[in-house]
Amino acid sequence: MRYNSQRQSGCHINLAVTIGLAVTGHFAWKEVPAYLIAQFVGGIIGALAIVAVLGMDGVHLGGIGATSLGSSTGYIQGIVVEAIAAFVLMFVIMGIPVDSDAPGNWAGLVIGLTVGGLIMLTAGATGASFNPARTFGPYVINSLAGGSISWAQFPIYVIGPIIGAIGGAVAYKGLTTTKHKVVESDPHSIKG
C-alpha cells in the first residue's frame, strides 16, 4: 500500500501526519525535512495572517489562536489527548487517501469531518492542535508580538501528535496487512 498522489492532492499540512506516513513507508524520508520546514513556515505565515486580519487584538485577546491546556488538564493528560486525536486522524488518513482499496474522492469530506469532530472533542482540554506546526506558528508570532505564551507546554503539542500519528499509521498498516494475508491465504474468502 503506497500513498496514491494521483488520487489525492498529497496536502501535508500536519507535521505529525508526514512523520506517520514516513514511518510506515508511505512517504520518502528524504522529503521529510523539506516538508517539516515548510509546515513550520506555514504555521508562522498563518499566525501572521491572523495578526494582519485582527491586529493586536488578535494577539492580546485571542493569543493568535495559540493552543494551551485547559485549566483542569494536566501535562501528561494533554499529551494523551493530543496523541489520541492524532491517532484517530492518522487512522482515517490511512484508510481513505492512502489505502488503494478505499473509495476515491471522499478524502476531503471524511478528513474534514474527522478534524471538525476532533476539534469539538479536544478543544477544551488542549486547544485541539494535534499538529506541531499549527501550534508552533502562533507561539512564535505571539511571543514576538509581546503576547503571553507558555513555551513549557509546547512539547505536549509535539510529543502527543507524533506518537499518536505514528501509532495510527502503524495500527492501520498492521490491521490491513493482516486482512490481506487472510484474504490471500483463503481462496474461498470474500475480498473486502
Q: Describe the sheet with the most strands.
A: none
Q: Which structural category do the helix and sheet elements fall into?
A: mainly alpha
Order of SSEs: HHHHHHH
Unreliably modeled segments: 1-8
Helix tally equals: 7
Characterise this structure.
With 192 residues, the chain is mostly helical. The chain contains 7 helices and no strands. Helix 1 packs antiparallel against helix 2, helix 2 (32-54) packs across helix 6 (132-144) and helix 4 crosses helix 7. The longest helix is centred in the C-terminal third of the chain and has 30 residues, at 156-185. The radius of gyration is 18 Å and the shape is globular. 38% of the residues are buried.
Question: What is this structure, in a nutshell?
Answer:
With 192 residues, the protein is mostly helical.
Structure keywords:
disordered N terminus, mainly alpha
